[in-house]
Amino acid sequence: MPALSRAPDGVPESSVGPDSPGPVSPRGFFDEWRNDVPASVVVFLVALPLCLGVALASGAPLLSGVVAGIVGGIVVGMASGSQLMVSGPAAGLTAIVVTGIAQVGGFAQFLPAVILGGALQIGLGVARAGVIGYYFPSSVIKGMLAAIGLTLILKQIPHAMGYDAGYEGDFSFVSPSGENTFGAIGHALQQVQPGAIAAALIGVGLMVVWPKTPMARMKLFPAPLAAVVLGVGLNQLLLAVAPEYAIRDTHLVTLPTTGAEGVWGQLTRPDWGALANQQVWILAATIGIVASLESLLSLEATNKLDPEKRDAPANRELLAQGMGNVVSGFFGGLPVTGVIVRSSANVDAGARTRLSAVVHGILLIVAVLLLARVLNLIPLSALAAVLLVTGFKLTTPALWKSAWRLGLSHFIPFAVTIVAILFTDLLRGIGIGLVVGIAFIIAEHMRRPGLILVSPAGAILTRYVLPDQVTFLSKASIARELEALPDSCRVEIDGRRTARFDYDALEVILAFRETARSRNIDYRLVGIPEVGLTPAH
């Protein structure tokens, strides 16, 4: 419903908004390299299997996931205003990619939709649509972080045991194979690989004790990297002395080993003839909107994780993500979004600036061209150890206690978001949590008085002042207050301080004039516009 509005007198417009860059840091791009470079190695180790896993689950070429990771690191990392968020292929778009490839006839025909989706994101950034990200309640964002932490733990337990039915990066309760999260844990318990679980336990233990030892001062060799190196060393030792306990090849990182020329030849090029297909344009709009929403949510979550509490500009992020998708689609990559798992690992590893995201993208290039055979020695259980610790830090008991102390109106949306994400997937869970959060906001708003009594008790004239915002949510409370007035009384309703009138609420007030006559009520309306007319100032 349209509304009549006016700015409150003497109140300047706020300069804070989705384009506000937050506190300006005087640091240069390379000033924090001692923290950022080691963190980039950790993010690279986490991102590599996730890129491959998302590509595999999407029914796309494996290299398409790595291309998206490279573009998310370098292109989006350079263009983004966020110092800590890391972008790449995300599990949240897997279902869209699988369906989209089938609808348009192949991956080459799918790529123009990725490029067009990126162009749409650029348009949204120019149109300043990043403000959408500011309308998600903090209870839902915190619930999302806690749910991602719990999901990481539950999803990595099978990998830690050597069971790999689900792909790395899967966040759905039911995997593409039809197996749910708890079923996978049950199956993993029945076929534990001793070497895998040893690598995971040693890795977790190492990362727990590492900060309490002098080794924590080794900025260039962080604990997660040590856990991965130790996992590789343990498996090589087992292969030499006890092969029956060694980790199977199926439980190691699997990166294509084709060399530079082979990699270039395997890249898929966009089929521009697919632009004649209407489904490509519909798919592009879907990718642009969903990728934008997921990126804005990841941006909000990363801002909360940032130790320095920097507030990255949302509109600039949409532009950066759009540029990333245009480049990724052009070079045969999957759609790119901000990814909270990689961003969390980045924060946890001690990154300070976006140099970490950029270097992790460069490391992905080096890995594909030069280090594939070495990286294929890394056990997935060693990487699971890194993600298990990251998951715990996202869902610490302190976070739950804090949500509880803020009251049921905060805790219930927080808890519902967690449960919904655990039993559906990330986007559906956030949607359910958002609906519950909005319901609490509406209920709280409806409990507020629509008319504020300002006259003293026993006064001949009952005087009410309208609040700053008179919306359709005020309709019921205003009607109750007016119906409760005694017959033959005198009343004044003052709307001079109200900045916004909804027609719905105005209709209740103006309809009161008719009932007031029949009840012999002497009324006076001050500063309240007639419906359809501009309010007088």
TrEMBL record:
State the residue spans of region: Disordered: 1-24
A GO term from the CC aspect: membrane
Give the record's membrane topology.
Answer: Multi-pass membrane protein
Q: Which InterPro entries match?
A: SLC26A/SulP_dom (IPR011547), SLC26A/SulP_fam (IPR001902)
- Does the keyword field hold Transmembrane? yes
Biased segments, Low complexity type: 10-19
Q: Is Transmembrane helix among this UniProt entry's keywords?
A: yes
* GO terms, biological process: transmembrane transport
Q: Which UniProt keywords apply?
A: Membrane, Transmembrane, Transmembrane helix
TM ranges: 37-55, 62-81, 93-120, 132-154, 192-211, 223-242, 280-297, 318-341, 353-375, 382-400, 412-443
Question: Any idea where the SLC26A/SulP transporter domain is?
Answer: 34-415
**Protein location:** Membrane
List the protein's name. SulP family inorganic anion transporter
Natural source organism? Gemmatimonas aurantiaca
